[in-house]
Structure formats: C-alpha cells, structure tokens
Amino acid sequence: MPRGRYSLHDPHDRTPLAEEHFQCAPGPSGWRYVSRVTSPAGDHRGSVDLALDDLGRPIRLELHAGEWQVRGAALDGVTWVRTDPTGTHATEGHVRAHAFTGTSPAFLVATARLLRLTPSSDATRVRLVAFTDPVLAPRTVDQSWALLKSEAHATDNGPLIVDEYQVTDLDTGERHTVHIAGDVVLAAPGIELEDLQSPPSTFD
C-alpha cells in the first residue's frame, strides 16, 4: 500500500499551492485512493476519496475543499452532487463523460487506468468533468492521451516500470507529459512526488 506526499504548485511560476498526503492500493473490486490536503503552512485544506472498479470507472468520489463538498460516481456518464459551505443548498450535475478529474494526482492514475493504453495504441480522446479549486466548480474538459513509452528502471525492490504519457488539452492544444509508475504519479505539471514510503502497486 503506497503512502507518501505530493507537493502541488502552480505549473507556470511554481508558487506552492498545497501538499497532499496520500495512501492508495488495489483491492478485489478495483483501486482506492485517499488523501488529506494541507496548505504549504500545514493547515487543513480538504480531502480526496476516490474508488475505481476493476475497469477503472469511478464508483465513488468524495472531495472536500474548504467547506465545499462533492460526491459523485459513474452512472450513465458521470453524476455528482455539490454542496455549498452553508449546507443548505445542493446542486446536482450529470454529463455524458468518462470520468472525473481535478488537481489531485489520483485523477491522473485513474484516467490512465481507465484507458489502459499501450505504446502501440493510437491517441485516445476522453471527456472528463474537472472540479476546480477552491470551490470545486465543475467544468467539462476534453483531452487526448497517448502512451509514448514504458521503461523499466532498476530499484532495490526490482525493476520499476515507468509509463510516459502525452496529454493534450483539446480545447487549447496545450500538451504536457505525465510519468506514472503503477498507481503513483512520479512527475506531472504542478505535481512533484516528495516522499514515498513503499513501492507503487502494480495492476494486473
């Protein structure tokens, strides 16, 4: 069960935004990721709880940011309920999309798991609902994912397979690279793995 810490920063000027203390693991029905998010000063900022089924679909999502909350799941697309800080109003949303995304590295692992690309695969288009900080506002985004290569790196615990993805925002044409090993993001724009207490899990 990998445990560790990501630092999140502005990908343009590298301003520190948050730290995400996480643990994740595959299970009999899929994969689960839980984390708590703190400010750079250590104050509580929110949390992430994401569970996928064995096909990579989100069967449960719970996000907290400040006093905002989102609960969602895959249901004829994706469906969610967003609750305001007072708790008196809840708005429902539904989009014919494949999954969710957001600032947490968990969503990069989840999308890679959903697509299951190989280096010989064509670039694959995916529609996602992004929840943006600080109020978890929903926004539909279209991306293209391609697995450029998979490389084995020697470690004390045996070879570590690192997948390099090219992700393209189809609205802007902006491209970036994401490196994932098993269920841990090694590097991505705005994300750095600062601490990992056990090796990444591998998926069948």
Alpha-carbon Rg, integer:
16 Å
The helix tally amounts to 1
Helix/strand-derived category reads mainly beta
Overall average residue pLDDT: 94
Overall body shape: globular
Count of β-strands: 15
Strand content: over 45%
Question: Whole-Å distance between the termini?
Answer: 15 Å
The H/E string reads: EEEEEEEEEHEEEEEE
Largest sheet: 15 strands, mixed
Helical percent range?
under 10%
Low-confidence stretches: none
The spatial strand order of the largest sheet comes to 8-7-6-5-4-3-2-1-15-14-13-12-11-10-9
Protein name: Glycolipid-binding domain-containing protein
Organism: Streptomyces filipinensis
Describe it.
This protein is 5% helix and 60% strand. It contains one helix and 15 strands; from the N terminus they run βββββββββαββββββ. A 15-stranded mixed β-sheet has the order 8-7-6-5-4-3-2-1-15-14-13-12-11-10-9, covered by helices on one side. A hairpin with a 6-residue loop joins strand 11 and strand 12 (160-169). It comes from Streptomyces filipinensis. This is Glycolipid-binding domain-containing protein.
Which properties best describe this structure?
204 residues; mainly beta; 15-stranded mixed beta sheet; 1 helix
